[in-house]
Amino acid sequence: MEVEAYVGETDLASHARFGRTPRNAVMFGPPGIAYVYLVYGMHDCLNIVTEPPGTAAAVLVRAVEPLEGADAMREARLRRLGRRKRLDDGAIARDRDRLARLPTERLASGPGLVCAAFDIDRSMTGVDLCDPSSALRVEPRGPGDPEPLIVAGPRVGVAYAGEGWAHRPWRLAVAHSPSVSGPPLGG
User: Fold this and answer.
1) Which of 20, 22, 113, 177, CA to CA, is 20 to 30 A from 141?
2) CA–CA distances in Å: residue 22 to residues 15, 27, 91, 108, 120
3) Which residues, in sequence order, are CB contacts of 11 under 8 Å at separation 6+?
4) In angstroms, rounded to a whole number, what is the distance separating the alpha carbons of residues 157 and 139?
5) What distances in angstroms separate CA 86 from CA 63, 78, 89, 97, one per listed residue?
6) What is the mean pLDDT of residues 24-33?
7) How far is CA 49 from CA 1, 38, 84, 107, 125, in A?
């Protein structure tokens, strides 16, 4: 439902801005490969490499709208919470209740929540997302699915990159989706 583009070593918001490193090496190709990194020391974020080998670029998956498996996503998010902090039985019960009340379309509404809901972590960096036999993969729209209206706007949380990069309309989302994570986009 929502992605953000990070294109090349000149993009001051991209992990590639400092050149190739052990952390970002997968961004330098081939396309269709997962790049998962940790942000703020606690949230995994899934990116999909997009350019031919040698050109560092990826799209950050910011939001996914669940079509099935909502109960499994709730359980995965609860497990992720338990790994991040020590929870007593009361805290687990409160988090379980909160997640049970959360609307399904909001279960993966944010880059960290995408990874929590699908139990994606950094060990999945390098996975071929285009391989139909992969446990983690992207799927094409169904043959009868309508073409979505896509809207664009500035990326979220990249003010540090400066005016020329922070305001580029490289955040793309399905218009009016209840799963979009950041500030609403036009459409």
Assistant:
1) 113
2) 11, 10, 37, 28, 20
3) 17, 161, 165
4) 28
5) 27, 12, 10, 17
6) 96
7) 17, 16, 27, 24, 10
d(Cα 180, Cα 49) in Å, to the nearest integer? 21
Tokens of 18: 């400092």
What's residue 98's pLDDT? Answer: 87
Give dist(CA 133, CA 1) in Å, integer: 23
Contact call for residues 178 and 103 (beta carbons, < 8 A): yes
pLDDT > 90 in the chain, percent: 75
Residue with tokens 């309508």: 146
pTM over 0.85: yes
Residue 14, both tokens? 């991209």
| List of residues 6+ apart from 83 with CB closer than 8 A | none
- Confidence at residue 112, expressed as pLDDT on a 0 to 100 scale: 94
Mean pLDDT of the chain: 91
